[in-house]
Design a protein that fits this description.
By secondary structure, the chain is α/β, with parallel strands linked by helices. The chain is 30% helix and 26% strand. Strands 1, 2, 3, 4, 5, 6, 7, 8, 9, 10, 11 and 12 form a twelve-stranded mixed sheet that branches. The protein starts with a strand and ends in an 11-residue tail after the last helix.
C-alpha cells in the first residue's frame, strides 16, 4: 500500500523517481480504508530534506500511512521557505485534540545548549507529555531522544570532547524484540552529535531498557513503556550524502573538522560514501510500524490513551 501525503509535497516527486509508490490526498480519499495516522514533528533545519528522508523509510511497509507534519509555534525556521511551512505544517495547538497511531520527533541543532535554555523547551515538553496519551508509539531521534529521556526519566546528557561523526557498528542487546526482527548481529548507524548519554544512567532506571549500543559511540537505542517510546541517538534516516554535505560545509568554514568515520571509500572525501546502514534503517522503520503501531493501535483512533 502507498503512503498518503499532502498534495504537492516536494517529497512526492523525489520518491516517485526512486520508484517508491506514494499517493497524494486527492487520490487516497477514494479508498475505503483507515490509514495509520503518523505525525512528524520536524525540528531539523533543512525540513524538506528531512521530510524526504523519513517518508522514504516509512514507504517500506504494506500498510497505508497518512503523514502529517507538526511545527512549533514558538520557533520560526530560518532555512525553509515560509510558504512551505504554511502549506504543509500545522501548529501543535491546532492538533492538540487529535490522536495519532505513531509519531516521530526529529533531532535539532541545539544539543550544546542546556535543555531548559532551548527557546522552545516549554512547548516541546508539552508535546512530549501530550504524546503519551495521544499517540500509540513515538520515535525520538538524536537530540529529541536525549531531550525525551531527560524530560520523562531525568537522564542527563554529557558533552563529548570531540564530535561523534560517522557510521558506527551497533549491537542489538535484546534480539528477540520485534523491533529487531530480521536484523543481523551487528548493524550500522550514522551519528552526528556533540553530546551523549551514559549507559549506567539508563541501566539505573527500571523504566528504561537499553536495547542497542556500540563500543565506539555508546548508547544507541533505548525502549520504554513496552515500545510506546523509542529513543534513537543516531540518524538511521540519513540519506547517503547527508554526512558528506555536513562535512564539506563545516570543512569550508572551520579547520578542526574531522573526516566522518567509516564513511568514504578508502577514507577519501573525493570518493563517494559507502552506504552500510540503509537496509537496517528500512527494516527498523517497517518493524516499528508493524509491531508497535499497527498491531498495538486501536481501530477506533479515539480509544488511544
Amino acid at each position: 500500500m502507498p503512503l498518503r501525503l499532502p498534495d504537492r509535497l516536494p517529497a512526492i516527486d523525489i520518491l516517485k523517481h526512486e520508484n517508491i509508490f506514494v499517493m497524494d490526498n486527492s487520490r487516497a480519499t477514494t479508498q475505503d480504508i483507515r490509514p495509520l495516522r503518523i505525525v512528524i514533528l520536524n525540528l531539523m533545519p533543512l525540513k524538506i530534506t528531512t521530510e524526504t528522508d523519513l517518508v522514504r523509510l516509512l514507504s517500506n511497509t504494506p500498510l497505508q500511512l497518512e503523514i502529517s507534519f507538526m511545527k512549533l509555534k514558538s520557533h520560526t525556521p530560518k532555512n525553509t521557505p515560509i510558504e512551505h511551512m504554511m502549506m504543509f505544517y500545522r501548529d501543535f495547538e491546532s492538533m492538540r485534540k487529535e490522536k495519532f497511531d505513531g509519531m516521530i520527533i526529529t533531532g535539532a541543532p541545539v544539543e550544546q545548549l542546556e535543555f531548559e535554555d532551548v527557546s522552545y523547551w516549554d512547548e516541546i515538553t508539552d508535546i512530549f507529555s501530550w504524546a503519551r496519551t495521544h499517540v500509540t508509539s513515538t520515535l525520538y531521534i538524536c537530540w529529541a531522544a536525549q531531550a525525551g529521556l531527560y524530560y520523562h526519566y531525568g537522564v542527563p546528557k554529557y558533552p563529548l570532547a570531540k564530535k561523534m561523526f560517522g557510521i558506527f557498528p551497533q549491537t542489538p542487546i535484546d534480539t528477540p524484540l520485534p523491533i529487531f526482527r530480521g536484523f543481523d548481529d551487528v548493524f550500522m548507524m550514522p551519528h552526528s552529535r556533540h553530546t551523549e548519554i551514559h549507559r549506567e544512567d539508563i541501566l539505573a532506571n527500571p523504566e528504561l531498557t537499553l536495547i542497542a549500543e556500540s563500543p565506539d559511540c555508546g548508547v544507541s537505542m533505548v525502549m520504554a513503556r513496552n515500545g510506546r517510546e523509542f529513543f534513537i541517538t543516531g540518524h538511521l534516516e540519513y540519506a547517503p550524502n547527508t554526512l558528506d554535505n555536513e562535512y564539506k560545509r563545516d570543512r569550508d568554514i572551520r579547520d578542526d573538522v574531522d573526516l566522518p568515520k567509516n564513511y568514504y571509500r578508502d577514507d577519501n572525501p573525493d570518493n563517494p560514501p559507502v552506504v552500510t546502514w540503509r537496509a537496517h534503517a528500512n527494516l527498523l522503520y517497517a518493524n516499528w510500524i508493524n509491531y508497535y503501531v499497527y498491531q498495538e493501535t486501536p481501530y477506533n483512533i479515539d480509544d488511544i490513551k
